[in-house]
Each structure stands twice: as structure tokens, then as C-alpha cells.
Amino acid sequence: MQRTRPTDSRPNRARAQRSTPEECRSRLEQRLIEHAEPVLKCTQVLKGHTYQLAAAVSFAYNVGAGAYCGSTTAKRFNAGDWKGACRAMNEADNGRPQWVTAGGRVLPGLVKRRTEERALCERDL
């Protein structure tokens, strides 16, 4: 099966090209590597912590490496508060959901994504 992708990584159906699943996987892997590097640079403590690193890279892939590196999650990882770092992926200190809105609205897809990232992050803690 082929997938449609924009030629410049931005939505633009008029210039879309077909890609194989292998090409899509390869591009995704490259983008994840691009996000893993800044995550490891600002939270070096994640080296060797597979689940927490995977969750942090997924989070950074979605919110941006700069936002991740300035986040409570990154600060808590660096402070050694691993459970607090994972919790901060989708919950503020006051218990309210965070990182789940776009355009001022809570998006169910972001709620699901953050819940999954947090669950992955909390594995083996």
C-alpha cells in the first residue's frame, strides 16, 4: 500500500507524492532521531532508560524539542524526580490536564497521546 505525503513535509495535497510504507517508516525514524538528539542533550539522565527516553522523544516530537527542554517534565527528569516527570507529561501540579490543547480546545487525540506517553514513561519505575 502506498501513502500520500507532501513533498516538503507540510500539508499540501496539490503537491503530494506517493510513498511506500518502508519510505514512510524511514522518514519517521529519521524524524525521531532528529528529536532524540536534543532530548538527550537537555536530559542526559535519560541515557539507558529506554521507556522514559522513548516517551520523552515522542513528547518532543509532538510539542517540539525546545518546548520539551523547557518543560517541567525535563526539569524533573534532571532533578531525579522520575515519577513527577512522567506525571507532568499530561498533568499539571494542580491536577489539571496539560499539553492536550490546540487552539484553546482540548483535543481527544492529544489526551490519548499524552496518556500513552505517560504510561510508557512510568514503565519500570
Question: What is the CATH class name?
Answer: Mainly Alpha
Q: Please bin the fraction of helical residues.
A: 55-70%
Order of helices and strands: EEHHHHHEEH
| Number of distinct beta strands | 4
List the strand order in the largest sheet: 1-2
Total of helices: 6
CATH architecture: Orthogonal Bundle
What is the strand content?
5-15%
Structural class: mainly alpha
Query: Could you say which overall geometry the principal axes of the C-alpha atoms support?
Result: globular
Radius of gyration: 16 Å
Give the CATH topology: Lysozyme
Q: How many individual domains?
A: 1
Our measurement of the CA-to-CA distance between the termini, rounded to an integer number of angstroms, reads: 39 Å
Q: What number is the mean pLDDT?
A: 89
The main pleated sheet reads as: 2 strands, antiparallel
Low-confidence runs (pLDDT<50, min 5 residues)? none
Protein name: Lysozyme
Enzyme class: hydrolase
Keywords: Antimicrobial, Bacteriolytic enzyme, Glycosidase, Hydrolase
EC number: 3.2.1.17
